[in-house]
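STRUCTURE:
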């Protein structure tokens, strides 16, 4: 699948109670530009899960897509690690 210029993120599934929707938490670590201290920021993304395969605790890869609903702008590309494997 050609991703073109679409962003791809990796994160943990926090919630999968909705139909065909999962909430993915993406953690980003970077050095503060002035103080050089490592800063951790987390953000939640609503992602479309067509087959309802994702479960709580899974590590998934999501990709940008056209708007699917009011909050969903991402799709689940694949499951990196299943929660049962961890």
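SEQUENCE:
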């Amino acid at each position: 699948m050609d991703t073109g210029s679409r962003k791809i993120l990796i994160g943990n599934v926090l919630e999968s109670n909705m139909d065909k929707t999962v909430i993915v938490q993406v953690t980003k670590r970077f050095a503060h530009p002035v103080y050089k201290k490592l800063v951790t920021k987390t953000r939640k993304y609503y992602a479309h899960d067509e087959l309802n395969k994702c479960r709580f605790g899974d590590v998934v890869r999501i990709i940008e897509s056209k708007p699917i609903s009011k909050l969903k702008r991402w799709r689940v590309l694949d499951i990196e690690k299943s929660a049962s494997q961890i």
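REMARK: DSSP finds no helices and five strands in the chain.
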